[in-house]
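quick one
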Amino acid sequence: MATRVNTVAVLGLGLIGGSLARALKTNGFCERVIGYGHRAPSLEKGVELGVIDSFTLDLAEVIDSADILVICTPTLVAEQVLAQILPAIAGRADAPIVTDAASVKGNLERAARRICDGQYPPRFVLGHPIAGSEQSGVAASRADLYINHRVILTPVAENDADAVSLVRDMWLATGADVVDMDVAQHDAVLAATSHLPHVLAYALVDALAQSDASDDIFRFAAGGFRDFTRIASSDPVMWRDIAIANKAALLEAIDLFSGHLADLRTAVAGEDSDGMHATFTRAKAARDEFAAILAERAKGK
Ligand SMILES: NC(=O)C1=CN([C@@H]2O[C@H](COP(=O)(O)OP(=O)(O)OC[C@H]3O[C@@H](n4cnc5c(N)ncnc54)[C@H](O)[C@@H]3O)[C@@H](O)[C@H]2O)C=CC1
Ligand SMILES: O=C(O)C(=O)Cc1ccc(O)cc1
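structure w/ 3-(4-hydroxy-phenyl)pyruvic acid:
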């Protein structure tokens, strides 16, 4: 593809930032990808693996040399990084476009307004790739991570249309499908489909690991346990940040789920076979429909 910009900077070179860097280098969206972080080791590894061309620990240098800054740090760190970047680029005609990949959008929208005295910075575009895994770190990054996966952009009214368009093109260049969503809708949907399942997996594994029978439980666990709990191997810092940043929507999702679990407990205790059968049948139909959608999407690969 024709090169769109000279330099993309990835701030926080882990699974998500490393995979973006690899994809952009593979498809020629930019001339070079540079890395920025608070510590050298993962960035040195990124250069060694050919994920990035160079790196710096100096944020001012990144701001001066990149066309697009992509914040790929844990969610709450992204607020701190924004607090350093936005004042530094305010009013600068040659300022880079800023975007991010964090899992929650509302906290970053609020942070951006707070940092800029209530005025949303037009060239900051909120984004979130719905692709990843329980792994983390630059060594786990892959150039094909985003192919046929959704990337959600949550532009706000004050956004500069050209900035949104360039960020959209960047993600399209990775092979992703880019969709727009409202910030609050994004956070509610992701609380239900991603943040709640991670909390449930962590809770289940923690509860069983602390029980007296934990040795037997893990020794004899079947595939269902493995499927349900894979995501409990995800990075605790990342998920702690997500739970804090999306507290309101996550609490709503937990409460909705707790109500259903309580109903199911009542059905089990009362041997309510019709009630249980109805719940399991409804859930199976919904899950089968979801599996069919996934299969259709995989065909597009
Ligand atoms: N892992 C996943 O499946 C997905 C993660 N996300 C989001 O993407 C972001 C990154 O996630 P991963 O790449 O999985 O995490 P990661 O742990 O693999 O990478 C995060 C990187 O940020 C760096 N970092 C930490 N503190 C920093 C600081 N103060 N300044 C500069 N760099 C710092 C770390 O050194 C690391 O290189 C998170 O906000 C996460 O919520 C979004 C979609 C999927
Ligand atoms: O590992 C998995 O299945 C995931 O769910 C990956 C993931 C983690 C966080 C996100 O914000 C989006 C996707």
